[in-house]
């Protein structure tokens, strides 16, 4: 892909690394909110190359990681019912619930299927009217438009045997909570570029004003991340706090208005518990009253679910940027991607998984652009 | 699930009134929904999440950013690599 590949250009990356190192008069603490960006930073070795000037702390932007344990336990209970076909994104299958995961439910005879798009789940429901098809709708503002369209489509097509377990989370309230914490260390943010493709950038004005922190919208390639970091550091060095967009090829101020209109119709704001972090007010979406007929948790009574978290897992601190994964004693020993203790070790967006995949072999700084 | 991927639109199709597109992700093609980006055309690049095109990649903006990045390096030249570091 012509102008896409160039955002991994090692020559330009080297220039940016030098620029940042030359600019910084001290070590700044910068949080990348999105787990996809965590993986790109660690894979490209950017965090190690900039280690003298920037400490990257990894944010809570991993949907698999922050989905509340109770919700996962409830999904497991629903998936175990004989009349139910549970459809899910693939990375939810291995997320540990209190006692088991979806893989184990499937091994015990549960009908659990992986879909690429939530519309596929609607198709399954259409094709198999005798089954109750439930889609496990988790994620941030990026997966929300897809999940919202699934219920809109189900209603349009009159598909009655379709419902969703909805546990959506929102990025700005989480940034707010992190900045409000007495243990706050974050001095600047790389904002998740793909969240902004949907929601636009205006939602960060308040955070910049209220907390006086630079927020720079960042893409996912090595150059995107380096350029955004350079801009955060430049602001910090100048004592400024502004919102900047370093991902202009994909992000506009208003985001995607069509998607936002559907989101406003299908979802309603709610308080949400974030796994490992706790409850953040008005930080999630549930189905709106107009669509509550598609709420699987109302359709299937699974009784009282009491969640038990592994006492050894420090994912909550990892997700708030308080510790890095390698400071967890279980990291790479009793906790690995094959047998994870916490959700941050599971997914392609979890910080523990990023450290395990790219770091555990004792690697040294690599040249950016690789990978 | 949250990883958005850029892909090139190779065909636009209609599925019972819903605009869909066949998108090429570096050799792997998938059918995706364009309800949120109905005017995307063949040959354009889109960011795709969970089977939905959410944003068009603007080539002019991409080239502009690259040009800007190429023109950088001035600060490093002025201060010298690690120059400012030494002050900390
Ligand atoms: S390494 Fe495993 S146990 Fe430790 S914080 Fe990460 S997920 Fe939890």
Q: Given the C-alpha coordinates, what overall shape of chain A results?
A: globular
Strand order of the largest sheet of chain A: 4-3-5-6-11-10
* Average pLDDT figure of chain A: 92
Radius of gyration of chain B from CA coordinates: 20 Å
What Rg of chain A do the Cα atoms give? 21 Å
Number of domains of chain A: 1
Record field, number of beta strands of chain A: 11
Give the tally of β-strands of chain B: 5
Q: Biggest interface in this structure?
A: A-B, 64 and 49 residues
What is the overall number of helices of chain A?
Answer: 17
CATH class of chain B: Mainly Beta
**Roughly how many Å apart are the termini of chain B?**
41 Å
Q: How much helix is in the residues of chain B? A: 10-25%
The quaternary structure here is heterodimer
> Which residues of chain A sit in consecutive blocks of at least 5 with pLDDT less than 50?
362-371
Which cofactor or ligand species appear?
Answer: iron/sulfur cluster
Structural class of chain A: alpha/beta
Tell me about this structure.
The complex is a heterodimer of chains A (371) and B (88). Chain A has 371 residues and is of the alpha/beta class. Chain A has a single domain, classed as Rossmann fold (3-Layer(aba) Sandwich), CATH 3.40.50. Helix content of chain A is 39%, strand content 19%. The longest helix of chain A has 17 residues, at 222-238. The radius of gyration of chain A is 21 Å and the shape is globular. Mean pLDDT of chain A is 92; it is low at 362-371. Chain B is α+β, with helices and mostly antiparallel strands. Chain B has a single domain (5-80), classed as SH3 type barrels, CATH 2.30.30. In chain B, 20% of the residues lie in helices and 40% in strands. Chain B has helices spanning 59-70, 74-79, and strands at 5-15, 18-25, 28-33, 45-49, 52-56. In chain B, a hairpin with a 2-residue loop joins strand 2 (18-25) and strand 3 (28-33). Chain B starts with a strand and ends in a 9-residue tail after the last helix. In chain B, 36% of the residues are buried. The model of chain B is unreliable at 78-88 (pLDDT under 50). The site of iron/sulfur cluster has 16 residues of chain A, from helix 16.
């Amino acid at each position: 892909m012509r102008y896409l590949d160039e955002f991994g250009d090692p020559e330009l990356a080297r220039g940016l690394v030098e620029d940042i190192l030359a600019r910084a008069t001290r070590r700044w603490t910068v949080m990348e909110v999105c787990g996809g960006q965590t993986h790109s930073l660690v894979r490209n070795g950017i965090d190690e190359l900039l280690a003298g000037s920037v400490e990257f702390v990894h944010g809570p932007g991993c949907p698999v990681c922050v989905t509340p344990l109770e919700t996962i336990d409830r999904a497991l209970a629903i998936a175990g019912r004989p009349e139910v076909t549970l459809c899910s994104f693939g990375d939810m299958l291995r997320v540990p619930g209190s006692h088991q995961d979806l893989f184990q439910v499937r091994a015990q005879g549960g009908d659990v299927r992986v879909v690429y798009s939530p519309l596929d789940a609607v198709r399954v429901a259409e094709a198999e009217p005798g089954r109750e098809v439930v889609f496990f709708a988790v994620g941030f503002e990026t997966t929300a438009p897809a999940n919202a369209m699934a219920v809109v489509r189900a209603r349009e097509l009159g598909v009655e045997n379709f419902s969703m377990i909805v546990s959506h989370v929102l990025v700005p309230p989480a940034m707010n909570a992190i900045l409000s914490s007495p243990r706050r260390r974050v001095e600047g943010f790389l904002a998740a570029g793909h969240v902004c493709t949907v929601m636009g950038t205006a939602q960060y004005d308040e955070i910049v004003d209220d907390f006086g922190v630079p927020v720079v919208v960042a893409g996912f390639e090595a150059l995107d991340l380096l350029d955004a970091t350079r801009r955060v550091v430049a602001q910090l060095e100048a004592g400024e706090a502004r919102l900047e967009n370093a991902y202009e090829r994909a992000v506009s101020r208003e985001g995607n208005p069509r998607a936002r209109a559907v989101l406003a119709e299908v979802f309603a704001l709610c308080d949400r518990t974030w796994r490992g972090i706790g409850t953040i007010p008005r930080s999630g979406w549930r189905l709106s009253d107009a669509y509550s007929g598609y709420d699987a948790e109302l359709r299937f009574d699974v009784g009282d679910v009491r969640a038990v978290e592994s006492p050894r897992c420090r994912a909550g601190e990892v997700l708030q940027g308080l510790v890095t994964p390698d400071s967890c004693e279980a990291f790479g020993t009793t906790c690995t991607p094959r047998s994870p203790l916490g959700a941050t070790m599971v997914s392609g967006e979890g910080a523990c998984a990023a450290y395990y995949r790219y770091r555990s072999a004792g690697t040294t700084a690599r040249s950016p652009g690789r990978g | 699930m949250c990883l958005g991927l850029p892909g090139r639109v190779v065909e636009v199709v209609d599925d019972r009134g819903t605009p869909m597109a066949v998108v090429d992700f570096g050799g792997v093609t998938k059918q995706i929904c364009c309800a949120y980006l109905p005017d995307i055309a063949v040959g354009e690049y889109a960011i795709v999440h969970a089977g939905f095109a959410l944003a068009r990649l603007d080539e002019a903006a991409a080239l502009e950013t690259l040009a800007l990045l190429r023109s950088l390096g001035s600060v490093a030249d002025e201060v010298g690599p690690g120059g400012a570091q030494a002050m900390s």
